[in-house]
Design goal:
heterodimer, A: alpha+beta, 3-stranded antiparallel beta sheet, 6 helices, elongated, B: alpha+beta, globular
Amino acid sequence: MPNTHDMLFKTLSDPTRRAIFERLCRSGEQTVGALTARAKVSQPAVSKHLAVLRQAGLVRDRHEGRQTHYSAQLGALAPLLDWTSQMTGFWQSRFDQLEDLLKRMDQ
Amino acid sequence: MSNPATETLSVVVEREVAYPPEKIWRALTQPHLIEEWLMKNDFKPVVDHRFTLRGDWGSVDCQVMTVEPNRTLVYSWGAMGMGSVVTWTLTPTSAGTHLRMEQAGFRPEQQRAYQGAKFGWSKFFANLEQVLARPD
């Protein structure tokens, strides 16, 4: 689970990449060309961002003729929205620190 | 617990710790020790005492609810406008202490707002929320 979080955070930490993902969330399926027209970067750069998003499971591609269509996979965000797994991770790391402290404390 | 209006979420973390409850109690209730494993704070083991936990990402407003030395410590935990309750239970064992922490009280629909605020992505998640709320 922490690896999934790391990957999602890393993937969405880039503002340009996040903008592309948000655009797919808002507008549904888009081609690279359509996405590039709205982005402030070149088509190869958009393609590169899409490849990273795809690796993280955040977008899916569909080939149709010479065009590739991309769509957002909102289900991939589920780990970030899961409060209980987040808080469990938080408290487990605090327990680790507490145990470290107990080791250092004198009786 | 099937009624959505009353359903709450809880998180339980428990561990066998190789130290007696008295020692763990000190780590849970002395401000300079709490700071070492949790956050900066102005905690006092006094019922109704209000204190603040301060982390890099923000602060948590708390109030002491129960103090049973070496056994039970309960405080409210309010962050991002949402409340929950943290209960520490210390049970002596032959090898030390069974330490249990339960944080309870969040309602499921608070999750998304909580995450957005916590990670400073409120705008991103607000946008997403709108998208998700939009009729198809």
